Amino acid sequence: MPCHLLRRWHWNGSCNDLLFQLVILSCLPPSPPPSPAPEEGFEVAVLMTLGELATVAGAQLRADVPEILPLVIDAIQDGGSPTKRLVAVGTLGQVRPGR
Description:
This protein has helices spanning 3-6, 17-27, 38-57, 65-76, 82-94. By secondary structure, the chain is mostly helical.
């Protein structure tokens, strides 16, 4: 039911509550998507920094790759954060043991 028809619609007690709720909900704007948790933003920033560090340091970072890779792989496997997964895949491309 469009919102302009809601003004002419009168509650007479014969409609069930579900219909009334559906009418009201159809007139409300959609809710915004939930904002990411602050921890997620921090983790994304750390992953991006690791990737940039790997690009700059190159072979000097080779000794630390066994410690870095499990963190990056864990971030890739995080199903709750598409942003973190995308950044982690990019970081994985920058942190290569053979460099």
